C-alpha cells in the first residue's frame, strides 16, 4: 500500500522534494487533466474549492465529487490528497474513506488539536478511526480490506496547516506530536493572522514565521510544506528546504493562462508572470 502513495515515497525515499497542484474546480476529467501534468500529488480542496465534500457530507448531497476526484487522480498513478474544511473527526473519516493518500487539515491552534487529529486519522490502537468503507482500497493500490486495515496507519499522510497566530506560537509543540507527518504553511492566512497581510512581497515578519515553521518541522523529524501560486515561488521554497510544495492551483492557472494568451494574441506583452512573492 505504501508503494501506491507517490507523495509518501517522494517524501521518505525520493529526492525529498515533492511538487503538487491544487484542485479547486470539480470534475473527474478535470482531475485527470491535472494528474497527467507531471505532479506527484493533487490536493482536492473541499474547504475553499468548489468541490462538494465535507460541507455537504452529512446529507450526502453531491458527496460523489470528492470520491470521483480521488479515484481519477489515483488511477493516473498520482497521490490524491484531500483538504477538509475543519479539524472534525467525521470530516477526517469521510476524506480517508474515499481512498485519499492523505489529508490536509486547516485551522489548528494547539498540540492538543494535532493529537485530536491523529486520533481521528488512525485506526486503533493508535487512534479511533472506524473501518468500513468499501471504496478506500482501490485508490490505495487495490489492496484487500485486511491489508488496508493493517497498513493504513503507516501509509497515509496526516498534514496540518500552520496558518493561525496560535498555531505559529505553538508550532514546536505541534511538530512533536507523533502521527503528524507534514507541517504545511498557508502564507495568506498566516500573514493575516500575524498582522502582516500579503499585499505584494511578503513582509519580513511573515518570511521569518515561514522559516520558523520549516525549522520546527525538520528539527522534529517531520516534513515542511507550503502553498504557492507559481513556479518561481515554488522553486524558491524548494531551495529553502521545503519538501511538499504546491506549485499552483487550477483556479489561478486557468485565468492566468487565458489572459496571457489573449494578451499575446493582441500583440501585447507575452508571458505575464504569476505572482511569485
UniProtKB/TrEMBL annotation:
A GO CC term attached to the entry: cytoplasm
Gene Ontology MF annotations: 2-dehydro-3-deoxyglucarate aldolase activity; metal ion binding
The enzyme's E.C. designation: 4.1.2.20
Entry keyword Lyase: yes
Occurrences of domain HpcH/HpaI aldolase/citrate lyase (ranges): 28-250
Organism: Rasamsonia emersonii (strain ATCC 16479 / CBS 393.64 / IMI 116815)
Origin: domain of life: Eukaryota
UniProt keyword list: Lyase, Metal-binding
Broad EC category: lyase
Pfam families with a match to the protein in the record: HpcH_HpaI
Family as reported in the entry's similarity comment: Belongs to the HpcH/HpaI aldolase family.
Protein name: 2-dehydro-3-deoxyglucarate aldolase
Amino acid at each position: 500500500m505504501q508503494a501506491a502513495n507517490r507523495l509518501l515515497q517522494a517524501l521518505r525515499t525520493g529526492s525529498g522534494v515533492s511538487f503538487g497542484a491544487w484542485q479547486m474546480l470539480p470534475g473527474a476529467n478535470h482531475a485527470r487533466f491535472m494528474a497527467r501534468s507531471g505532479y506527484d500529488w493533487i490536493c482536492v480542496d473541499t474547504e475553499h474549492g468548489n468541490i462538494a465534500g465535507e460541507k455537504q457530507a452529512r446529507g450526502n448531497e453531491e458527496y460523489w465529487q470528492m470520491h470521483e476526484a480521488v479515484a481519477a487522480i489515483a488511477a493516473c498513478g498520482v497521490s490524491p490528497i484531500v483538504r477538509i474544511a475543519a479539524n472534525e473527526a467525521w470530516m477526517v473519516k469521510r476524506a480517508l474513506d474515499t481512498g485519499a493518500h492523505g489529508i490536509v487539515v486547516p485551522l489548528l491552534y494547539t498540540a492538543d488539536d494535532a493529537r485530536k487529529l491523529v486520533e481521528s486519522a488512525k485506526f486503533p490502537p493508535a487512534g479511533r478511526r472506524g473501518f468500513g468503507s468499501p471504496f478506500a482500497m482501490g485508490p490505495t493500490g487495490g489492496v484487500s480490506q485486511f491489508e488496508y486495515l493493517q497498513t493504513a496507519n503507516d501509509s497515509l499522510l496526516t498534514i496540518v496547516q500552520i496558518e493561525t497566530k496560535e498555531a505559529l506560537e505553538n508550532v514546536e509543540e505541534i511538530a512533536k506530536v507523533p502521527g503528524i507527518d507534514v507541517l504545511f504553511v498557508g502564507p495568506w492566512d498566516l500573514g493575516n493572522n500575524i498582522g502582516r497581510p500579503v499585499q505584494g512581497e511578503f513582509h519580513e515578519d511573515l518570511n521569518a514565521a515561514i522559516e520558523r515553521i520549516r525549522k520546527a518541522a525538520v528539527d522534529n523529524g517531520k516534513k515542511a510544506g507550503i502553498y504557492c501560486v507559481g513556479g518561481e515561488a515554488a522553486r524558491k521554497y524548494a531551495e529553502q528546504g521545503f519538501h511538499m510544495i504546491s506549485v499552483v492551483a487550477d483556479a489561478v492557472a486557468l485565468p492566468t493562462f487565458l489572459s496571457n494568451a489573449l494578451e499575446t494574441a493582441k500583440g501585447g506583452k507575452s508571458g505575464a508572470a504569476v505572482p511569485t512573492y
